Amino acid sequence: MANIGIIGAGSWGIALSVLLHNNGHKITVWSILEDEIMMLNTEHEHKDKLPGVKLPEDMVFTTDLKAAIEGKDILVLAVPSPFTRSTSHNMKKYVSEGQIIVNVAKGIEEKSLMTLSQIIKEEIEQADVAVLSGPSHAEEVGRGIPTTIVVGAKTKETAEYIQNVFMSDVFRVYISPDVLGIELGAALKNVVALAAGIADGLGYGDNTKAALITRGITEIARLGTAMGGKFETFCGLSGIGDLIVTCASMHSRNRRAGILIGQGKTMEEAMAEVKMVVEGVYSAKAAMGLAKKYGVELPIIEQVNEVLFNHKPAAEAVKDLMIRDKKLEHQDLPWE
Questions:
Q1: Is position 189 annotated as part of the catalytic site?
Q2: Active-site residue, from 106, 121, 189, 285
Q3: Run of H or E residues at 104
Q4: pLDDT > 70: what percent of the chain?
Q5: Pick from 177, 86, 96: which is nearest to 130 by CA?
């Protein structure tokens, strides 16, 4: 049995707390919001973020960050990406040398262009930082629906330990040394999911979505490999796997926000209606910053930025994608 602190009581943090408790581990859940912790202690259910998922009576809920961190075998960092740096900064004084932190949020910091694990390591240099990602909606994991993910870590020993802690008959865990590739796939797919949602909001069909998914993973892999990620990672769970589920499911807050934007709402209006952090909005600008830094073209992600931040009509953005210069699908395939 492991003693685990879940830092963040949103839908994903709560879903993972249920999974890990069902695996036989001792769970403490932290939130900065007193009202949220009061609700969890009283109702043993997150009625706002994960309704219908009952939480065990012996699960501990607290606003005391020190109590949630000290003495824990693993810390699961599950706060939304915009709060990763500030939360990590506050955690630092309580984290022991070599303590494992598994980041489960997805995003890239706009100003620094850093991945979330890079931010955590910068703020908490003594931590052993790993990541967990893949096609895994909290709404389904919380209900015990079979799910498969990948864990990335610096060492195989850490990855295998996390694998053993999380693995169950409804949660299959693979491991990988490509932490960077896993994080880039996880963050950038949210931007493409916004595009897929926008296409849905415009009333387009399956052909359009298939094109966005296929060309979207090409853009993600193009940037990811330029940055040092491994091509195989983008063909796997945190690449094409996560992209498919996020573009296709109504559980996806990025797709839902995109649908609203395609229907004519502004980015701000869409985010307010979704009532959850839409990670792709925060990663979109960062993606273009990285594209410029590494000299790669990201036409879909570029058009998402135009719609989000420059008020470009969504239908015009799709038209501009369709009439781009003619291209080969794969540059390296030879002609006879």
A1: yes
A2: 189
A3: none
A4: 100
A5: 177
As given in the structure block, the two tokens for residue 266 are 């502004």
Do the bridges between strand 60-62 and strand 74-77 make them parallel or antiparallel, or are there none, so unpaired?
unpaired
pLDDT digits (tens, 9 = 90+) for 172-216: 999 999 999 999 999 999 999 999 999 999 999 999 999 999 999
The model's pLDDT over 268-293, given as tens digits with 9 standing for 90+, comes to 899 889 887 788 888 999 999 999 99
Tell me how far apart the alpha carbons of residues 172 and 89 are, in angstroms, rounded to a whole number: 32
What's the full length of the chain, in residues? 336
Torsion angle, CA of 216/217/222/226, rounded to 10 degrees? 120
What pLDDT sits at residue 325?
86
Contact of 229 with 188, CB cutoff 8 Å: no
User: Can you give the pLDDT at residue 33?
Assistant: 96
Tally Cβ neighbours within 10 Å of residue 19: 20
308 close to 194: Cβ distance less than 8 angstroms? yes
Query: b/e string for 169-190 if b means 16 or more Cβ within 10 A?
Result: eebbbbbbebbbbbbbbbbbbb
